[in-house]
Amino acid sequence: MSIPKDPVILLSYVNTLLRDRYPSLTELCKSECVEESALKAALAAIQYEYDATLNKFV
User: Fold this and answer.
1) Which H or E element spans position 51?
2) Cross-strand bridge partners of residue 50
């Protein structure tokens, strides 16, 4: 499955997957074949960072 390109839609998509399916960002990236650093960079562009404690981008 490909991930959304629009960063706002990507944020919602990733946080939903983290909430419903994956215990960590690393697991999400492995399963979805996404480079973790690229995902973090895309969401950092709209001022969101991954919080491992909450397991979501905030």
Assistant:
1) strand 50-51
2) 57
Classify 55 in phi/psi space as left (phi over 0), alpha (psi -120 to 50) or beta: left
Closest CA to 36 of 26, 46, 45: 26
pLDDT one-digit tens code per residue, 22-36: 999 999 999 999 999
* Alpha-carbon torsion, ordered 21, 56, 34, 44, to 10 deg: 170
Instruction: Please check whether residue 19 is in contact with residue 54, taking contact to mean a CB–CB distance below 8 angstroms.
Output: no
- The model's pTM is 0.93
Any idea which residue has 């905030």 for tokens? 58
- Number of Cα atoms under 13 Å in the Cβ half of residue 46: 13
